[in-house]
Specification:
With 127 residues, this protein is an alpha/beta fold. Helix content is 24%, strand content 46%.
Length: 127
């Protein structure tokens, strides 16, 4: 399945924004290799109201579990980064027809924004 990607025009105006965009697309396409190579060993992924995933090994397992329902389309509305933080919001349409809104907030391990040490995800199924 080829995931269709639509990106808002204000998204790619800095190296950190482009990095967040690539990570967001990697999540949608199930590209675990890219994600795992860009997070710290002590990564924390807090999916609000669902689960907290701690450590790279556990993240790898979680990504395998998630990759069951393929993303048909990803729309990224906004990406914003500043200092050691970044965020992306938008929607994904799954192959099952489910439309899901998301906002992912990233904390980088440094102000260059080259590795992610924490992700907080807000996910709402909307139809």
């Amino acid at each position: 399945l080829m995931t269709k990607v639509i990106v808002g025009e204000d998204c790619g105006n800095s190296p950190k924004n482009i990095f967040v965009q690539k990570v967001t697309i990697a999540f949608a396409k199930g590209d675990s290799k890219f994600i795992l190579s860009n997070v710290t060993d002590d990564i924390r992924w807090n999916i609000i109201g669902d689960k907290l995933i701690e450590g790279k090994d556990r993240l790898a397992e979680a990504l395998d579990e998630i990759n069951g329902d393929a993303v048909e389309a990803l729309t990224i509305r906004h990406i914003a980064t500043h200092g050691k933080a970044g965020a992306a919001d938008g929607t994904v349409r799954l192959e099952s027809g489910m439309l899901r809104a998301f906002c992912d907030v990233y904390e980088f391990s440094n102000s260059k924004g080259t590795a992610i040490k924490e992700i907080t995800s807000y996910v709402i199924d909307i139809q």
